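Q: what does this look like with 5-O-phosphono-beta-D-ribofuranosylamine bound?
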Amino acid sequence: MTRVAILISGGGSNMLRLVQDMQAGGYAQPVLVASNDPQAVGLARAAACGVPTAAVDHRSFGRDRAGFEAELLQPILAAKPDVLCLAGFMRVLTPGFVRRFDGRMLNIHPSLLPKYPGLHTHQRALDAGDTAAGCTVHEVTAELDAGPVLGQAVVPVLPGDTAETLSARVLVQEHRLYPEVLRRFVAGQREPVFLDSDR
Ligand code: GRF
């Protein structure tokens, strides 16, 4: 069965949906949830689902990004994942790390890529006067937030929206989109899936 490791940095709500969908659907096995923050709340949520966890505090490595990644790779490689999912993982990975998982690492980004790669995506969409926003699941490549799109979900921007209200609306769709894309990815499908949020 396809083995899936998930990297998180915080609450892990996307991770939880992936774990729950794999455990319910039986199409893959969550073999590890790892974080760059030992205090990440998602670690306890993963453990509560019976998924092994690991944490490497990136702050212990200062600017030594490669050193942090070498440490983080230990539990990841020990778990022997076939697929690596970034889910609310807030560290930029070096091309060397990405190459190890070339073609089998996914990420969810809270914008309709290629619009708004990087941070503060919701505020940027509001500042631009966009009438639609959303999220994207893409394959991770060496260029940040730029790999092949595997799925997108669109939400309306509503009058009076703030970054917080828009983020909350998008997050609901992230939780629908990521499991849908992972199921297809594991089945070898690469055609992008597009969800709209009329449900
Ligand atoms: C969310 O805002 C999501 O858009 C982004 O990371 C943030 C936290 O996600 N991917 P999670 O709850 O830790 O999955």
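The chain has six helices and eight strands. The first strand starts at residue 2 and ends at 8.
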